[in-house]
Amino acid sequence: MALLTPRNLLRWHDAAAGPAPLPVWGAAGTPCSPLVVWAPGEVMRFYVPLSFTPGTLAVYQADGSTSAGTATATFTTFAVASGTHAVASATCPALPDGIYKLGIGAWRSQEIEICGDAAELAALTVAVEASHPAALGPLLYPYVFEQIADWTQRFRLRLRHAGFEDAAEFGSYQLSRTGEIRPTGGVEQKIHTFAADEVTEDDLDALALLLKHQTLTLGGVAYTFQPEGNLKRVFDPVARPGRSGHGGEFSLYVKESAFVVR
């Protein structure tokens, strides 16, 4: 079994069983939470480096073998040296809340969560869209990406909004007579912080790469890379007894918030 899409939010394995189940931590047997959440009727867009022409997008129970249904999906394929790669746009079927895996042929994804609870979706998840100039795609992902022009991946992720602050970069000068310091021109901008709790290391790797995309929206708001806001990995089992203690936190600039003072 090989991992075919490392550092991606939706990771594919070339075996029917797919990856191992989510790690279970603590005496209470609490597992990590899937980072990717799919709501019935919602569209997810993803890339998959297939070695064959895709058929249907199947949904399986968490064991990767018991069928749960089929998602409505459109695959756009293109030929590469290793076979056929595709981008997909898929609509979540009406299934009970729970943990599932997706399947294309013999391939299986990691575990994802299907959730139809509107209150939970609003409070604990964020719809994320990300894109990058086609020519620069291979710098992010270790598989063919450059043939996809103007394509945006879309996922819903289990993220919580963890706070915000104002950031300012201003020059200054000091009055010689009074010693008073006065600001000169600069930029003021808002920074929002998001956190992912109880997720796997593979999910954190994917989040770290997501932040490097040139175009990025969370919850319909456009954000830009914040150099000091790279993903910070958290391990605090003391504060979370019976839990894994694993998580991540990152910060982004709100794109439209930049205010230039001259």
Structure commentary:
The structure is a single chain. With 262 residues, the chain is mainly beta. It has one domain. It has helices spanning 118-124, 137-140, 201-210; strands at residues 12-13, 24-25, 30-31, 36-38, 43-48, 57-61, 67-80, 83-91, 98-104, 107-109, 112-114, 126-131, 153-157, 160-174, 181-197, 215-218, 221-225, 232-235, 246-254, 259-261. The protein has an 18-stranded mixed sheet that branches. The model has no long low-confidence stretch (mean pLDDT 80).
What's the SSE blueprint?
Blueprint: E1 12-13, E2 24-25, E3 30-31, E4 36-38, E5 43-48, E6 57-61, E7 67-80, E8 83-91, E9 98-104, E10 107-109, E11 112-114, H1 118-124, E12 126-131, H2 137-140, E13 153-157, E14 160-174, E15 181-197, H3 201-210, E16 215-218, E17 221-225, E18 232-235, E19 246-254, E20 259-261
Parallel strand pairs: 4-11
Antiparallel strand pairs: 1-10, 2-3, 4-13, 5-8, 6-7, 6-9, 7-8, 9-10, 9-11, 12-13, 12-16, 14-15, 15-19, 15-20, 16-17, 17-19, 18-19
Helix content: under 10%
What is the element string, with H for helices and E for strands? EEEEEEEEEEEHEHEEEHEEEEE
Q: Taking all residues together, what is the mean pLDDT?
A: 80
Largest sheet: 18 strands, mixed
Distance between the termini: 58 Å
Q: Count helical runs.
A: 3
Q: What is the rounded Rg?
A: 21 Å
Low-confidence stretches: none
Structural class: mainly beta
